[in-house]
Amino acid sequence: MESKNCPICKNSSKKEYIPFCSKRCSQIDLNRWLGEKYHIGINEEDGSNN
User: Which of 11, 22, 42, 46 sits most deeply, having the most CB atoms within 10 A of its CB?
Assistant: First the structure.
């Protein structure tokens, strides 16, 4: 697997924390999700009525 950059601090990812570089960065990301700073958008124009 190729090394990518941590989405939080942009340092190189570490194998044990992929995609993050540390437990700290993974916890920052989790806190952002729990604090509703991230969201997943929906496409209301897709025409499906499921």
Answer: 22
Choose between 40 and 24: higher pLDDT: 24
Beta carbons within 10 angstroms of residue 28's beta carbon: 15
Q: How far is CA 42 from the centre of its chain?
A: 18
Task: Give the tens place of pLDDT for each residue, 5-32.
Answer: 999 999 999 999 999 999 999 999 999 9
Vertex 26 angle, CA 25 and 27, to 5°? 90
CB distance 18 to 8 below 8 Å? no
